Amino acid sequence: MSKSGKGKSHGARSLDRRRRGKGKRRAGRSGSPLAFVGAVIGWVILRILRLAMGIGLRTALFLALVTGAAAWYYHSELPPVTELIDARTSGSVTLLDRHGSVFAWRGKQFGGLVTSSTIAPVLRNSVIATEDRRFYRHFGISPRGIAGAVWINLSEGRGPFAGHGGSTITQQVAKLMCLGVPYDSDRWDNEEAYETECRRGTLWRKIKEVPFAIAMELKYTKDEILTVYLNRCYLGAGAYGFEAASQRYFGKSAADVNVAEAAMLAGLLTAPTRYAPTNNLQRAQARASTVLDLLVRQGHISTADAAAAKATPAELSAAAQARAGGYFADWVMGRGPSFLTRSTTEDVIIKTTLDQRIQTAAEEGLKQVLDAKLMDGSKAQAAVVVMSADGAVRAMVGGRRFKGIAGAFNRAIMARRQTGSAFKPFVYAAALEHGYRVDDPVLDAPLTIDSPRAPAWSPRNYTGEFVGETTLTEALAQSLNVPAVRISEAVGRERVRKVAETFGVAGDLAAGPALALGASESTLLEMTGAYAGILNGGTSVRPYGLVELRLLHDPTPLMGKVGGLGERAVSPAAARQLVYMMFEAVERGTGQRARLSGREVAGKTGTTQAARDAWFLGFTADYVAGVWMGYDDNTPLRGVTGGGLPAEIWHEIMLRVHEGLPIHDLPMIAPDESPRRARAPTPVNEPHVGVINELLRTIFGGRGR
User: Fold this and answer.
1) Do strands 348-352 and 546-551 pair parallel, antiparallel, or not at all (unpaired)?
2) Around 382, how many Cα atoms within 13 Å sit in the side-chain half-sphere?
């Protein structure tokens, strides 16, 4: 047997190998401490992993049981899907113009039930592509989506659940349902606070969403969940659900939208207020372009379809684009009971007197004059009211809207300002009713009125000059102050006050002789309504905008017209003479800038002390309009009188209002008609005034300056 061991048996060789292996291990342990340490660490790690796996499996099992129990509880509490479609606790108000077209919305609008099968297919696909492209494949939650959202949020420096949520459509419906917690007015101040709480993206709420979403997936079908989402999501401008939003922005049903419109509506889901096309159409169109790209990538539309939609992006409907009658809508909302308007829990339809063509004319005419005539940065304000002779308000502009200012203060109805010479027609109305005639004489000469309870008062004309004896018509046309005071004192202030109040000039009218010069305050709406009474033959009107109020889907009105014709203020004969006098004020007097070529106009200017207010009110045979200008803080106007900018604004507005309308004559006496001459005005009851009058008659021979 050789030294190489060839002669050893197989068993002996195996024994030798085991001995050599043990020897090597002993050598390694004794010769390499690091290897020993490594072996110990490996053993510890292995033990930890085994322990962690055991704990993880037990924890996962525990969480699965808890989640299952919570899901089962939520499942048992979930109501039928039909009860989830419209969960608003407050209703909406839709306002229609005189022709039945929608012009404004208030409150939370719900357009009616739509389902995943009744909306346009491209809209359904746009919603899924934008919000949850794996909607039909997951079980309510998407771990991949949540992990991706957390990563994005952390990489952008936000909290893990701040910003992108990674929520599925099912989870978003869970949020819309506030995880089954109903609104409680005792717990939340209002619905906005409730909705804010429901949308909070805290970790605990995210955890609670999981079993709730799973419960929904078990309780409802995918299409039912999508239907709830399509009807409850907020899409800006007070619209809840895609039907309301489609009607609001495009004036059509969600079943009829095209590719571009569908993309714009789906794009609103990211940030409804920011992307609302009524706030910024270009921004909404840019967001829609992103949605179109998603639709192409996910195979819902072709590249050609997307290109065509981008070439002709969605546009707002005429009603949404005009945004007409905001001030008017707010006014009408205040004319009905609050439980059917501002605080309604029902969906209400209000038909109004607004004429959108006339409203546009008022807005454009006002803007054109002010843009051309006011200095840049001027904060002078203006208001406009246009109405029919029966008091039906056709247009209302409550002020200029400055950038960054909401403009909620409606100067047409809220600002009580001195009326100045715009009040004088009521002085002459009282005189005509008392027996005076348009060509009766009246003296324009210095006048001082003593009062036992006030200092002596001497009215002055705007020019500071006197014309001597004149007629009632000329005195009104030239807006002479002294004759107006003489007439008021002659017929009696109480008669003047009674006529003005009957015509609708409400409030605390001045008690002294300055009553005749418009020292009292009124609103533009009241004054325009009073002038409407002059036009219609002397019958007062109560301005109105609400024609009919009813509930949605109920044809029976709950309330009808609020306002219209009232009691008679002066006789038709007196009214016809007064219209003639006011016609002369525009033809030859202070209101000449308001004239309309080929159409008869009657009106009156008004400028208050220190020019703090400037008015022009007037009418044609068809419409009455009033214009007021001034500063909100009563700063005097510079270089502005009622016969200036207000008359020019009135002209521009009425030029547009009457475009295409046939010409009608004013209801007045003929210009060459000579009414029966009445007695001369009764002198005021102060002896020195009569002496001055007789002296001036002698000096000037009945006329003079």
Assistant:
1) antiparallel
2) 27
Question: What's the gap between Cα 479 and its chain centre?
Answer: 39
Instruction: Assign 215 to helix, strand or coil.
Output: helix
Do residues 387 and 529 lie in contact, with contact meaning Cβ atoms separated by under 8 Å?
A: yes
Neighbours of 160 (CB within 10 A): 16
Q: Which two tokens stand for residue 633?
A: 């803080």
What would the 3-class secondary structure string for 94-109 be?
EEECCCCCEEEEEECE
Q: Tell me how far apart the alpha carbons of residues 588 and 346 are, in angstroms, rounded to a whole number.
A: 55
Let me know: does 89 contact 228? Beta carbons within 8 Å: no
Q: Measured between alpha carbons, how far is 78 from 170 in angstroms, rounded to an integer?
A: 14
Beta bridge partners of 469: 443
pLDDT, tens digit (0-9, with 9 covering 90-100), for 593-648: 999 999 999 999 999 888 899 999 999 999 999 999 999 998 988 888 888 999 99
In terms of Cα–Cα distance, which of 417, 399, 427, 400 is closest to 331?
A: 399
Contacts of residue 326, Cβ cutoff 8 Å, sequence gap at least 6? 104
Label residues 322-340 b or e (16+ Cβ within 10 Å = b): eebbbbbbbbbbebbeeeb
Look at residues 650, 46, 697, 147 and name the one whose alpha carbon lies nearest to residue 383: 650
Residue 550, classed as helix, strand or coil, is strand
Summarize pLDDT for 367-398 with one digit per residue, the tens: 999 999 888 888 899 999 999 999 999 999 99
Alpha-carbon gap, residue 383 to 633, rounded angstroms: 15
Strand-pairing partners, residue 106, are 93
Render pLDDT for 34-47 as a digit per residue (tens, 0 to 9).
777 778 777 778 77
Q: Can you tell me the distance from the alpha carbon of 598 to that of 596, in angstroms, rounded to the nearest whole number? A: 6
Sequence-ordered alpha helix ranges (H) in 536-671? 572-587, 645-657
Do residues 486 and 442 touch, judged by C-beta distance below 8 A?
yes
Three-class SS state of 541 = strand
The whole-angstrom distance between residue 250's C-alpha and the CA centroid of its chain comes to 18
**pLDDT tens readout for residues 473-482:** 999 999 999 9
If residue 628 lies in a helix (H) or strand (E), which one and from where to where?
Answer: strand 624-630
